[in-house]
Amino acid sequence: MYEALLLQSETVAAWTALLPAILLALTGLVLLGIDTLWPEEPSNAMLAGVAAAGSLLSFAVTGWFLVAGTGQARTGGAIPLYGDALVVDGMSLFFTLIFTVVTAMVAVAAYDYLEEQSHRAEFYSLTLFAATGMAVMATANSLATVFISLELASLPSYALVAFLKTDRGSVEAGLKYFLIGAVSSAVLAFGISLVYAVTGSLVLGDVAGAIGNPEMAGVLGLGVLMILGGFAFKTASVPFHFWAPEAYEGAPAPISAFLSSASKAAGFAVAFRVFVEAFPLGAVPAGVDWVLAFQVLAVVTMTLGNFAAATQEKVKRMLAYSSIGHAGYALIGLAALTAGGPNGDVLGASMAHLLVYGFMNTGAFLFIALVEHWGVGRTFEDYNGLASTAPIAAVAMTVFMFSLAGLPPFGGFLSKYVLFYSAIEAGFWWLAAVGAVNSALSLFYYSRVVKAMWIETPAADFEIESRPVGLYAAVLFAGVGTLLLLPGFGPVIETAQTVAATLF
Amino acid sequence: MIIEALIAVTFLSALVVFVAPDAYAAKLAAALSVLPIVGSLRMWAAYDAAGNALLGGEIAFETDFVWLTVGGLDLHWFVGVDGISLPLVVLTTVLTTLAIVSAWTPISDRESQFYGLMLLMEANLLGVFTALDFFAWFVFWEAVLVPMYFLIGVWGGPNRRYAAIKFFVYTNIASLVMFIGFIALVFGLGDSVSSLRLPEIAQALRAGELAGFAGLDAATLKTVAFVAVFIGFAVKVPVAPLHTWLPDAHVEAPTPVSVLLAGVLLKMGTYALLRFNFTMMPDVATALVVPIAGIAVISVIYGALLALAQEDLKRIVAYSSVSSMGYVILGLVAYTTYGVGGATFQMIAHGLISGLMFMAVGVIYNTTHTRMVGDMSGIADRMPVTAGIFVAGAFGYMGLPLMAGFAGEFFIFKGSFASTVHSAMPLFTAAAMFGIVIVAGYLLFAMQRTLFGPFSFDGDYDVAEAPFHDVAPLAVLLLLTIVLGVAPDLFFGMIQEAVNPILTGGGL
Description:
By secondary structure, chain A is mainly α. Chain A has helices at 2-8, 12-15, 19-37, 44-68, 90-113, 120-139, 143-161, 168-199, 204-210, 217-234, 243-250, 253-278, 290-310, 315-335, 343-374, 386-389, 391-405, 411-425, 429-454, 469-484, 489-501; strands spanning 79-81, 86-88. Chain A has 21 helices and two strands.
């Protein structure tokens, strides 16, 4: 497949820009190869090691590209590939950084989680294929590649959610996720075809050049709205969020982490590029006000997500709803755009928030995986007194909770601050105010977990029989990342805002 | 770099203690907490700056570099001290060590975590009093909440969950209100500031460079922001009627935590009021002098009356803080050297004396396991040293001359009588002075019923003198109270130098 695509690329150097995605795909294939060579249950350690090493290698390459300036303005600008179907630029690399680091954490954590399961090789390779899809999503520059890469990311995810074949919740979640995903794919495809009907093109830049036709504004508006619906599904935004709590709760916890962090970020990566590149604010005809749609979406999503999270009795469901709330914050990146405003700052702030979110949210779900591994129950009460048996992990979880709530000593505070600040700077102080109030309210349900772990006394004696190395390593890695992103936020936000600014 | 060293050493000590085994944690924490004392006293001895850090004065031990840039505004790592913050830094380091020692008897559960959190709180408090960039300051300001939440919630009394959550939610929402108010000011200033450094913002606001924002004109924006920021800090102080979290938090918190809560955390509120409201927006403060002075007087009288009505010794001391902090607000709004300087001095004095009182109540509680006034009488017979220090501390609270409380209150009253910001200020002062009578009333009443008279005690515990390590911190605090009362100039000189620019416009 790659050879065929290679023939079209003009220089040998150009396709190497896709190295992060290629590495992920190759790792997935290697995992399948291992499974073929040792058909009777290959070693779990080897599989997890290969998966983690592959994603970390991809992470390192992405980081190297980002630092070296691949596809950025200072080295000649974005690299278009395959007739503009894909484009590698700073933004795609920034998002790939999120996907790869989350994939690595999930792979390491899955080592312990899968100890008792069969079909482990499939699990790892599906995860890596989904990550490949996400990495391609971030580079998709044509509505066709957008659709294909989105499906490449989604199809393995459906299977992964239903991975626990004997668990009714997991299978049910997978089925729901698949059905809603199929519907929203259809909606997205129909929206794309409407946009194609108006503009006669699928490449984002050409679409932007052809949308000024006011006669077809109604059809275009419908198409844009349907595309928005497709992305709202992928990012678990209201009103296409119903699958998320079910899928996150039923899925194996590492997959919940994967979906709510990486997959969501991938949805945003596509949404950012498509709406900014294909439907630029200055060019869209009157009546196609997608910024207004995103404003409504952002406010409703963050408010509904937060209030629903506050009423949950199960920790994993609470996290699922709270991740809907965080989708609302990230949507500010598209909701606070104006023609000629500081759009790069706003979009960059959203991207930086998604990066911090990748650490703290993955960490939180992986902590739940750890707790599931120990056989502790799912409700807040079941978490009572966990800190006295597992203090280090509880400290990490406390860091995640307070960081998600936006309390200062952690990365989440700074990313939210910059996000809201940028929104005010763009003139959307009311959007920032809604976000800030929501963020303050979220402290209520996040601190419930902390309270249960540290302050409540355990209901019954329970001993931790094992200290899973992989899960611990992944949780601690995420915790340290969340902490270090406060003092080290400078380069992150500067990179994010610089690469976002080149889109406008 | 001595300030960074101070914060870093405290923070590292917290980490070390957190992972140390319980058996050593208490002694280790006490030993490590001596390091910041040495550092802060060295700072105090070497202090040679002058003026107000926000209004063009020199800044001692300053560090300033850009941390990150957001939307054209630089966020700095900017720390330093002046005559207002240095005394509070010294108070924080000294009181933390004494609180740690006073925790040896009552804390017997999960000790390494307890002492680790105490030191973590100290590190954050030092940050609050030394940070001169709004962003860095706000990080520390909010970070104080986290260890406090655990300290009350894990080691507190029977109702600790409620108290911890109430404290957390109350003060966090207050911070949000304050944050929004302050950020509105920054946006109103627009291009006239290029960073969130407090001196830059203070000088721009004083120079009248505020423009309107979000549909509000400059004057309205300033007033609205002032009120938002004031409310945010008033909850922390706390002033009536925003004080209801305080008695709950105090009563549930273990003694050493109460000591830090009353001794240092409440000062965060008044310190921030001084730095933000009264330094940056004196015009609005002067225009709102009647409501602010009214709130101050109500806090003084109402807090004292509430204390008078309590049966629980700890509640009495807790409500008396509401009353004492009212004096501080009165001194601030007076806008005279003695008023504002006295308020700053009173922060230190109240930190020492309320710490002393909480510790004394704690020592009595460790022995008797009750704090109810009705359950005991004649405690002085069995615990003469503790009772003696309790009485001395109470006299300090009432304002006995040659003790720190007297100096603070005297400066405040002198300053607020002479105040010219409003013709009714002498009236407010006279009303507030009436609070002294009530203070004397509830303290004498409480002591007479618990400490004196024939010994009787409803309980099965053997009432005897407390061990040395319980009484020693009390004695140190009493000594410091007397030293500061006899020689207020140890701090008052540098305070005055830092306060004067606030009143005169400070070299603008």
